[in-house]
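re: ur question from yesterday

yeah so i grabbed the chain u mentioned. its 340 aa long if i counted rite. heres the sequnce exactly as i have it in my notes:
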Amino acid sequence: MNRRHLIIGAALAAMMSTTASYAQEITLRLHQFLPAQASIPNGAIKPWIEKVEKESEGRIKIEHFPSMQLGGKPPALYSQAVDGVADIVWTVVGYTPGRFPKSEVFELPFMSGDSATSSKAFHEFVNEYALDEYTDSHPIVFHTHGPGFIHSNKPVATIEDVKGQKLRGPTRVITNLLGKLGATPVGMPVPAVPEAVSKGVIDGAVIPWEVTLPLKMTELTKNHSGFSKAPGLYTATFVMTMNKAKYESLPDDLKAVIDNNSGPEVSKLFGQAMDDMDKVGRSKADETGNTIIDLEDQREAWMKIGAEVEADWIAEMDGKGVDGAALVKAAREAIAKNAE
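ran it thru and got these structure tokens back, copy pasting raw so excuse formatting
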């Protein structure tokens, strides 16, 4: 074989290798904790998957595993992404207490209102102030839910009514709030709530309206208390993130597909899915004839308790060498900017 043939052969081999790389098909497993019909799985994750698959021209296939179908409990989800048990996970940031301390600022009482606004603000905040908390994975979307309400068997019309009630809280920040309000806080992932309520393990839970639908909370509880105006009682935070090695193993053009479906504008879409279903959840409670209690005329008293929770969190951050007050200020500024 002469030199010309060797050169042609090498060129053809390179072209075939490049073609094979671009034609490579990747299957990603996405794992999360709620039923497929819930707000984010159906209203955000499903269209996100469809968009990624379409933009990759079918070269990325995403298998969606809802309701912890790949095994484990919801608090293990973030570690599953890090360890490669799943390629992508969607989870509540606060399910792993203490792992993401700076991100907790968006969970503070009376921090935010609608989810679309606070989700975009949260994504931007994390990118600027707290991305170092997620260096062991490849984050795609950060977002929040809408204002949390108290859903309980016993009506909550005043702070006094909270006292002695066993109420589920989603994160350590919120369980601190519930404790200061006089409740007995019980931390648990949201999928455990229906059984805990039906068996009398807890008297109720703090969750947003949207998740009352898959949990059937309007059937399990008859009273729903919260604030009709922003900011709401509390919010929880979420992340959809990818195994870092899996992302880095993608061809550049497929990385670009993931990148084009990441970021603050995508987080706003996730938040809008929450807001849309909050309206449906509230309507369902109205249709059922449940009692909906507006605490707006008592806001000052509740916010006073909320300020104590905020002060505790700032002191804890300061103890870690982090300027907690500066993070609170930055979070509120990000929300205000996105509300304009």
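noticed a couple things. The radius of gyration is 22 Å. also The chain has a mean pLDDT of 93.
anyway ttyl
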